[in-house]
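Narrative summary of target 7.
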Amino acid sequence: MIRSLATAVLVLTATAAVIDAQAPPRDAVLKAAREVIGAARYATLSSVDELGGYLYSRVVDPFPPESNFTIWIGTNAESRKVQQLTRNPRVVLLYFDAPRQHYVSVMGSATVVRDAKEKARRFKPEWKAFYKNGSEGDDYVLLRVSPSQLEIVAESLGMKNDPATWRPVTLYLP
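Modeled conformation, tokenized:
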């Protein structure tokens, strides 16, 4: 059995190397992902409600990804998503550029941030109507999404999914 397991590991490692060799370079994937995200502007954030086990999705207006692809989102402190992320931080952000039929999914974990300096740095003027005290109120919090991987399909940018399995270009992030 050890020999079989060792052989399986070698085969999987070799297969992964072939897949990686065929994948676009990391910088190209990140550049294409930023382009799709910029074109899409809005994203769909999905989180898990552990009470019922259902996924809940909603449209959000995130900030552009930082250099390490951390993504920030402003939201109401009393929203369901804040409650859900407190119990289960796993999330998916889906950006869809409809005119070009491109998408990026960012998987990771989200943290609720209540720090006043961070809130002041990340507040959009158009949100003033939703938060009576702007970034200074207790009703405004941030979600910091720390990515673990992203998937992209953007054919015109060279990010093509596998024609047989439809598996998108996938990049694992540290």
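Residues 46 and 124 are 22 Å apart (CA to CA).
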